[in-house]
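Dear colleague,

As promised, here are the two records you asked about, laid out in our usual form so they can be pasted straight into your sheet.

NAME FIELD: protein one
SEQUENCE, THEN STRUCTURE:
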Amino acid sequence: MTNLGPLDRTLRAILGALLILSPLLLNAGGIWIYVIPAIGAGLLGSAFMGFCPAYTLFGIRTCKAKDASGN
């Protein structure tokens, strides 16, 4: 099941990659060196799978619905 459209997936992939790299680029310290990349990994994972559990809870869908023929 996919509920993320192409623009949403692209933005999540870019933001996820930036968040994963941010502790290295910004010299972050403390617990943030683990929390920020974990959030980025979640965004990157949802971008590649095309599915966001939070969108399901709120009934949001940014992709076009497929018809009965699968198109």
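NAME FIELD: protein two
SEQUENCE, THEN STRUCTURE:
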Amino acid sequence: MTGISRTSADLDPRRRRILFRAWHRGIREMDLILGQFAEAEIASLTDAELDELETIMREEDNDLVRWITGEKPLPERHATALFARIAAYRPDFDPVR
């Protein structure tokens, strides 16, 4: 999947905004990782998890990719269960059907 397939009509404005921002990153790798993670999880995230996701999304994409792939050590501030879930998420790189 290379683009959003979930409708945001049932989401509150904050979740819609986060979902949009997750799919519109600076580099395509982060579009796919954060976009697909958000698409799958956004409806069930708690307010605290949404706060944390917004904090993570403020980071530079190149840093996020390096932390997720293990190329750079993960800063202590992001050593959380949510970041581990994002890093463990394996996006679908298949073309849109």
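A couple of things worth noting about protein two: Residues 28-41 form the longest helix (14 residues). The chain has a mean pLDDT of 87.

Best,
R.
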